[in-house]
UniProtKB/TrEMBL annotation:
GO terms for cellular component: plasma membrane. One of its GO terms (molecular function) is aspartic-type endopeptidase activity. This is Lipoprotein signal peptidase. Keywords: Aspartyl protease, Cell membrane, Hydrolase, Membrane, Protease, Transmembrane, Transmembrane helix. This protein specifically catalyzes the removal of signal peptides from prolipoproteins.
Amino acid sequence: MSPDQARRFALACIAAAVVVLIDRASKAAALSTLSEDERIPLLGELLGLQLAFNPGALLSLGSGATWLLTLLGVAATAVLIVAATRARTTGSALGIGLILGGAIGNLIDRLFAPPAFGRGHVTDFLAYGNWFIGNLADVALGAGVVVLAGSLWIRHRRTHTTATDDPTASGTTVEAGR
């Protein structure tokens, strides 16, 4: 692994670790202070705090196959770790790290939360109107996707611009985000 690759991998790992720590602390606070029966409004009806336990994925999809979601979470975590070792830009490393941290945060719940090992329900507490209730790991997942997509888009634009501006640059690429 080159020094640049090692630096990007370290960034992804640090981002993931920060997300996991914040996610675990916020879930512990939610478990000790919030109720499943009462919503505390933060931004009127748009955003509030309410405790929920989700056996499924987004919008409770797959709630009857929690064990399968756990296996998918383990597989996704492994793939994300490999992707972090191969990140080509700082932006992609950060995006992958945010996604990895969110995946690990929810995977910890699936592995260790009740009702049983590998079939745990994810602790959620951020109530988005009447649409769904999520957590900070979910926020990190979404933010990571946006950062990764933006990084890939910038890299593509720079590569495309370089190739079209310099006719002698055919077949060469430029790495963005360094």
